[in-house]
């Protein structure tokens, strides 16, 4: 690209602070997607004791991380990107009583 780091810093002063957050969100999504893929591949069912905790971990590491990061960045889309996290949480809350009763 033939661009020196000082040129990038001058053109985009907040980039160095912003990029680690972006990669943290990406890493969270990759981790969460991997956990969910593994679990679905094992044919998870609501009757299994690990279904609820795995789904909770998946949500926290994907939509949770994305939402928190967007609020920390004061993103213009932070309120819109809160919706997936709230939906995930609502789904877990609805599933928990059935999960706890079978545990």
Brief sketch in words of this structure:
The chain crosses the membrane at residues 22-40, 52-71, 77-96. Keywords: Membrane, Transmembrane, Transmembrane helix. This protein has 103 residues and is mostly helical.
Provide the number of structural domains: 1
* Total E-strand runs: 0
- In sequence order, what are the helices and strands, one letter per element? HHHH
Indicate the mean pLDDT.
84
Describe this structure in words.
- With 103 residues, the chain is an all-alpha fold.
- It has one domain.
- Helix content is 75%, strand content 0%.
- The protein has 4 helices and no strands.
- Helix 2 packs antiparallel against helix 3 and helix 3 packs antiparallel against helix 4.
- The longest helix has 27 residues.
- The protein is elongated and about 60 Å long.
- The relative contact order is 0.12.
